[in-house]
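Re: that backbone. Tokens:
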């Protein structure tokens, strides 16, 4: 009789210990589900924000491209006009029409006129090494063309930022999928009757969750 009682007590203790283990893993599973729910919402939110940022940056880059094209067109037209008047000036000089030369010089854009005056100091009609025209002088500037160059550089940089934002959004989407996989593993593990398999599923879920959380924490945020 005492031996039977001891066996019964041992059996009850074993069941209590097993129950505590099951209860412990159930708490872990609930904790995982809570973390996954929060992390999934956050990752999805960040993915949407970064995708919107990509669209915004691409729009800014396109706007800068349009402005650069407009500035380039304007600068090109100014340069063509200055070059045409410079050609006319050469013809007027050859014809010794000083009055026409003065009129043409006054019609140069201010920056081209500065370069023209600097070009005259190089003795262009007697020195073969002189620059062929004002546009080849270091003093020559075309603000519109310089603006176009700056806008194109800015557009390229903004476009690269948009690409980076898109890549960040893609990583957040990937993490959202991984978190969904954790949710699936935990949900399946809860339905398994074999304790070892259930524990293995939970451990895999925890490992995948840890990896994903580290990735999410390391990503930039908006």
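Recovered sequence:
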């Amino acid at each position: 009789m005492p031996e039977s009682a001891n066996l019964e007590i041992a059996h009850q203790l074993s069941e209590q210990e097993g129950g505590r283990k099951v209860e412990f893993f159930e708490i872990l599973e609930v904790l995982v589900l809570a973390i996954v729910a929060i992390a999934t919402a956050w990752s999805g939110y960040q993915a949407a924000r970064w995708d919107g940022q990509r669209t915004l940056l691409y729009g800014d880059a396109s706007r800068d491209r349009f402005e650069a094209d407009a500035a380039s067109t304007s600068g090109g037209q100014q340069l063509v006009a200055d070059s045409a008047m410079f050609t006319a000036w050469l013809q007027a000089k050859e014809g010794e029409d000083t009055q026409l030369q003065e009129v043409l010089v006054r019609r140069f854009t201010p920056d081209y006129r500065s370069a023209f005056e600097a070009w005259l100091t190089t003795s262009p009609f007697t020195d073969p090494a002189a620059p062929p025209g004002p546009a080849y002088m270091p003093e020559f500037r075309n603000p519109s063309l310089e603006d176009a160059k700056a806008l194109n550089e800015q557009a390229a940089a903004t476009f690269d930022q948009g690409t980076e934002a898109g890549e960040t959004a893609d990583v957040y989407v990937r993490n959202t999928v991984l978190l969904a996989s954790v949710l699936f593993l935990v949900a399946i593990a809860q339905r398994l009757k074999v304790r070892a398999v259930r524990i293995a599923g939970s451990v895999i879920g925890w490992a995948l969750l840890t990896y994903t959380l580290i990735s999410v924490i390391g990503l930039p945020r908006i």
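Confidence is low (pLDDT under 50) at residues 3-18. Residues 2-94 form the longest helix (93 residues).
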